[in-house]
Amino acid sequence: MMLTATLGERIVSKATAETLGSVDGVVIEAGQQRLVALTSGKGRKARVIPWKEVSGVGSAAVVVEHDDAAREPAEGFETQQARGDAALMGGLILSDRGNALGAVVDVEYDAETGALTSIRTSQSLTITGARLRAIGAFAWIVAAGDDEAGVASA
Amino acid sequence: MTDLLLRGTDLTGLPVVSIAVGEALANIKDVVYSPDRGALLGFTLNKRGFLSGPMRDVLAFGDVMAIGRDAVMVSDETAVTEGGTTLTEIVGESVGRNVLGDEVLTEAGKRLGTVVDVVVEVSTGQVVGYELLGDETLQAHAGRPMLVPIPATLAVSGTVLMVPAAVEPFIRDDLTGFGAAVDDFRGQLPGEA
């Protein structure tokens, strides 16, 4: 599943069939290379829906287990990403060797587990999810790979 | 075999980025270099953003994980430290000991030009050459920048850097191929092969 297809989807409760909001972002635990939550709302009003509360991600909606699936983001990276303080889509991708690999244009993930499969960059690179090391306000840090040679400087 | 080569001025302004959290901690202000050891010691730093300006914190080369074309990578924020470090003392003592503008002479007494930049092998922190503004008497390079390989160690005073006379055939115009010129030059020096 591509993240750009998920962003903007409506969030529907499995218990009541009510529409609870829309997907405004995601929280990625970089060390686990995994989507751990969806976010709904922006800035200080952003709330997170942990992945275990998500029962299905389809082409028409994201279905969550019940109406109370959303909660306040936890301190740390969850709050940073939910509030938009860390760069997600459009964020700079930097290898741990200090070379820019473009900006994030999309993320492919496993809709069942949330595992990050790959990161697509503005320089037409596909970086395997396993290379992700950190996501911060400045950049996504990925382990260096063979794709660095010939990449234009940012 | 030399690796990625960059000019010292290419490093100026690069962000210092934490690999652990993806945050930019500072920008490189200046390169701190030991001419007699031919090695990069570290960097002085500027704050980032709106309140940018010199920081008291410094970054020692030993705390650098990698230097790339777009950033200087450190493991985490503890790499950027203030005070009490050897590097801080060196920076304090080195005021006025800038190699930029120094005269480069060969051991045969020929003046090659004045230093306008240093060339760094980023993986090792070795300074492998100088960029000079060619002296008018060096006809091939008069008035143009040129890259001069240097030995691993060389004699320096406050204003003069001494290089072997044998360096002249290895002078280059740009960084492409300069790494090979450094290897070839050093390979034919006694004790540096």
Beta-strand percent range of chain B = 35-45%
SS-based class of chain B: mainly beta
Strand order of the largest sheet of chain A: 11-10-9-8-13-12
Number of helices of chain A: 2
Radius of gyration of chain A: 16 Å
User: If you compute it from the alpha carbons, what radius of gyration of chain B comes out, rounded to the nearest whole angstrom?
Assistant: 17 Å
Greatest contact between two chains: A-B, 21 and 19 residues
| Morphology call of chain B | elongated
Characterize the structure shown.
The complex is a heterodimer of chains A (154) and B (193). In chain A, the strands form 3 sheets. In chain A, strands 11-10-9-8-13-12 form a 6-stranded mixed sheet, with no helix packed on it. Chain A has 154 residues and is mainly beta. The mean pLDDT of chain A is 92. Chain A has helices at 3-6, 77-82; strands at 10-13, 19-22, 25-29, 34-40, 47-50, 54-57, 62-64, 92-95, 100-109, 116-121, 126-128, 132-135, 139-142. Chain A starts with a helix and ends in a 12-residue tail after the last strand. In chain A, a hairpin with a 6-residue loop joins strand 4 and strand 5 (47-50). With 193 residues, chain B is mainly β. In chain B, the strands form 2 sheets. In chain B, strands 6-7-2-3-4-5-8 form a 7-stranded mixed sheet. In chain B, a hairpin with a 7-residue loop joins strand 4 and strand 5. The model of chain B has no long low-confidence stretch (mean pLDDT 84). Chain A binds chain B through residues 30, 86, 94-100, 133-141, 144, 153-154, and chain B through 14-15, 17-24, 65-73.
How are the elements arranged and paired?
The complex is a heterodimer of chains A (154) and B (193).
Chain A: H1 3-6, E1 10-13, E2 19-22, E3 25-29, E4 34-40, E5 47-50, E6 54-57, E7 62-64, H2 77-82, E8 92-95, E9 100-109, E10 116-121, E11 126-128, E12 132-135, E13 139-142
Parallel strand pairs in A: 1-7, 8-13
Antiparallel strand pairs in A: 1-2, 3-4, 4-5, 6-7, 8-9, 9-10, 10-11, 12-13
Chain B: E1 5-7, H1 8-11, E2 15-18, E3 24-34, E4 39-46, E5 54-60, E6 64-67, E7 72-74, E8 80-82, H2 86-93, E9 103-106, E10 111-121, E11 126-134, E12 145-149, E13 160-163, H3 178-187
Parallel strand pairs in B: 2-7, 9-13
Antiparallel strand pairs in B: 1-10, 2-3, 3-4, 4-5, 5-8, 6-7, 9-10, 10-11, 11-12
